[in-house]
Amino acid sequence: MIEEQLPQEPVQETVKETSKPNWKIWIAAGGCVVFLCAAVFVGTLIFVGPKFVQQFFPEKVQVAGELPRDVTQINTMGDPNAPVHIIEYGDFQCPYCLQFWTETEPLLIKEYVNTGKVYFEFRSFPLIGPESVLAAEGAYCAGDQNKFWEYHDTLFTNWTGENVGDFTKEKLIKYAKALGLNVADFESCLSEEKHKGTVDQDQAKADTDGVQATPTFFINGFKLEGSQPFSVLRDLIEQALNGNLNTKNG
What we know:
CATH topology of the largest domain: Glutaredoxin
Order of helices and strands: HHHEEEHEHHHHHEEH
Number of strands: 6
Number of helices: 10
Distance between the termini: 129 Å
Oligomer: single chain
């Protein structure tokens, strides 16, 4: 006698279904992990700051394009016997000094310095903070290797904001290396504060001349404050050349 087979209940099938991993849960969990890692990373960038970022994305030094200064000596350019003597008191962290260097100085060099009409002198007046002082000393250290103006230009090229770490000792050494200076000599000059006295002397002269802001210019002794358009500077230079500017020796 053949036994009648009873219909099987889908017990095994039910077991198989419950034993399958729920892939949606795993995807959701993975997404949460990725989100948390990203949040931790971003939070670290915010709270730890730019030094942490630099470990992953090293900064590149930008070397300034060379301005065609025909005659230079340390922090001066042009003929010392030129009829017009211009002194600039500047701070390497000053945005208006940067504006002057970008917009006006190239025209001044081309039309008046390289033609023997203007003798130009840069004096440091570091107002904004410790990085301004370090940058000023670094420029004079570069001047010891006949690279004052190249370093001057490179400082402005790499400046991004006031006291944000652009002019730390480490950064200043990087700029020196990028310009092909003897790094050991430069670092020694900076560490020993060789030109601290030079910068102090510039500041003392600024105080004597009544300088209160940067940039401040003296055109044969005529005081001009702020980053003025080249047209203003040209007018005063022409007056000085023609003997019509009320001047005194700067």
